[in-house]
Amino acid sequence: MNYKTRAEFNNDKEIILASIRKRFVAFLVDWIILVLMYLCIITLLSLFDLTITDINVHGIFEVELEVENAQAYFITFLKFLFGLLPVFYFALSLYFWRGKTVGKWLLRLKVLSLYHERPGLWHCIERSLGYFASALECGFGFIQAYWNPNRMTLHDKIGETIVVDLHVKKISNKTIVSMPATAIAETPE
């Protein structure tokens, strides 16, 4: 049996890759939104007399949390919620907004699947979990975009995606009709 390569879906389209700076700003906007979501959850819990005194999110399953007036099972639930909130945010927003998060929408960026018409739910989950892999080793997975010809980071490679810029206007393929030299000579002055 011979190895068969997959044809990329966007191979025939002219696309413009997003700059690393715009991707970074979109990522910061998304993390600001995540921090606001964390603060909303903490405020909501304080309305029910559950006070969070200390929270440290180190990874998906590594969350340190101290909550006053709460049962042990509820603290475990909050640890999973705080650990998986970034995965839920990125995966669901990329899937339901067809390749855009709030940050990408504001900066007119879009995530495209390399092999499908749009990123599927599993690709979005893989890409979201890939953010944690990109952050390992002092962000080495993010730095890979500098030398990759398609500006792919580690989470792009995991999710088989690229990020494109929607703001750049494409030059249309209009035919420019030029006047023949004889017509220029015959024009009255």
SSE topology sketch:
Layout: H1 20-47, E1 51-57, E2 63-68, H2 72-96, H3 102-106, E3 109-113, H4 121-143, H5 154-159, E4 161-165, H6 181-186
Antiparallel strand pairs: 1-2, 3-4
Helix pairs in contact: 1-2, 2-4
Q: How is this structure best summarized?
A:
The protein has one domain (20-165).
| Integer average pLDDT | 81
Decide which structural class fits the backbone: alpha+beta
- Give the helices and strands as they follow along the chain: HEEHHEHHEH
Percentage of residues in DSSP E strands: 5-15%
Number of self-contained structural domains: 1
Shape designation: elongated
Radius of gyration based on Cα positions:
24 Å
Q: Helicity level, as a percent range? A: 40-55%
> What is the subunit arrangement here?
single chain
State the separation between the terminal residues, measured CA to CA.
74 Å
| Biggest pleated-sheet summary | 2 strands, antiparallel
Q: Can you count the beta strands?
A: 4
Number of helices: 6
Low-confidence parts: 174-187
Which strands sit side by side, in order, in the main sheet?
1-2
Description:
This protein is α+β, with helices and mostly antiparallel strands and about 190 residues long. The protein has one domain (about 20-165). It has six helices and four strands. The chain has helices at about 20-45, 70-95, 100-105, 120-145, 155-160, 180-185, and strands at about 50-55, 65-70, 110-115, 160-165. The strands form two sheets. It has a two-stranded antiparallel sheet with strand order 1-2. Helix 1 runs antiparallel to helix 2 and helix 2 (about 70-95) crosses helix 4 (about 120-145).
